Amino acid sequence: MLDDFMLRATLAAIGTAISAGALGCFVVWRRMAYFGDATAHAAILGVALALLFGTSIFLGVGFIAFLMSVLIFALSGKGQSVDTILGVLSHGALALGLVAVTMIPNQRINLDAYLFGDVLTVTRGDLGIIWIGAVVVALVLWRHWTALLTSTLSPDLAYAAGMNPRREQLVLTLLLAAVVAVAIKVVGALLITAMLIIPAAAARNFAKTPEHMAFMASGIAALAAFGGVRLSVLLDTPVGPTIICVATAFFALGAVSSLVRRAA
Amino acid sequence: MTAILSATGITAKHGRNTVLHNVDLSLKAGEIVTIVGPNGSGKSTLLRVLIGALKPTKGKVTRKDGLRIGYVPQKLHIDPTMPMTVRRFLDLPTPVSDEDAVHALCTSGAQGVQSQQMASLSGGQFQRVLLARAILGRPDVLMLDEATQGLDQPGSARFYQQIDAVRRELNCAVLMVSHELHVVMSASDRVICLNGHVCCEGTPDVVSAAPAYRELFGTGTGGALALYRHEHDHHHHHEAAE
Q1: pLDDT tens per residue, range A1-14
Q2: Minimal Cβ distance to B83: which of A147, A162, A213
Q3: What is the ipTM of this complex?
Q4: Which single residue of A122, B73, B96, B216 could bond A126 by disulfide (Cβ 3.0 to 4.6 Å)?
């Protein structure tokens, strides 16, 4: 079972897409695109660490993404210009990662695989980790949904209802780190944010409620993943960017159709 | 009657500035208390301390066990990327039945907007929906932070009438923050005049006659800010606390 590399690639892409699609709604609603970028870019540093210590890439990336997101979380409570801090951390981490990867002795690695993903090489073990990650993200989102949503709308409303919006923000931060770890194999560090944002943005054109939007975003992301893998084989193009292209096409379709509806 | 919510010796900061100094406040069940004060007097900060959104640097907030707070924020910005129908909004933080939702909208004066998007509501409707959401949790105390900001005068007068109706139905305490003295005061049991500290406190009559209050709000505003009071001299048993 799962001997076919195409099947494994497709399943890996769909698993990542489903969790990234739903989580991406929060990234969009809370305007965390830059936050996502910073966490994702730090992943390259995680790759370097994993290679250095000979551990699993998932572990290294997850660990560094987690550190990065906690760092941003701590800084964002201080009321400074978050935008600038994120810009510094995001690109600083990417550059540091790129340098660190080349400094590892006796390693000639293919950087492209980590920057743009390399889903055609996922093993059965990778696939297991990706799906476990996706299921955990979905379960945590499910459990925290109301608190996350209320905190996103207004921290004060959440406090008045006895919730702790800071804690919810931390939960979101951790979920983001998990998705980054899972997605690096599929779309690569540079396009993880796209996987979060584009399906959610495409779903916005049709959705009436937040839940509606999250399910649609997951669905659109899964379709893009499926279509992207197929199309990349057909056209002999890199898989990660092709998936994002398909997602962007969905967004464009949605935008045009909502324009037409409004005009009609 | 004992207080359901009380704050003692509250000192709190907004950013780096200390905006509240040693503020005491207590609220009894069913009581309507209005906090008035000029801009920057710490009214909203005090409310945020009371709902637990802000930790005071000094002082203590005591709540009755299991106190339910219905909070109506000054304004609520819903990011345009988030689709949200009125009906779904009313389900936050706890899902409610359709029947309760319709009833709460009626009580708040916003009938028939369930299926609309929050973003498509007018300012007045939006505030009423916020009020409806706040009362769905059967609150012991309804807290309103300048809830009529952005409404014109007749609009805010109607909104306050609605609050009065809500209070009679729910029998909850109401704590509101406002600068619209002329509309608010008539309905209040007690007015607290705040300017970083409690300047004066008491029934509307007492406060509007207090020198500290007159200093803050002036007496020369004439008709525009005239307080309309109605029969306040005979049904108030509790006199000024100070």
Answers
A1: 566 889 999 999 99
A2: A213
A3: 0.85
A4: A122
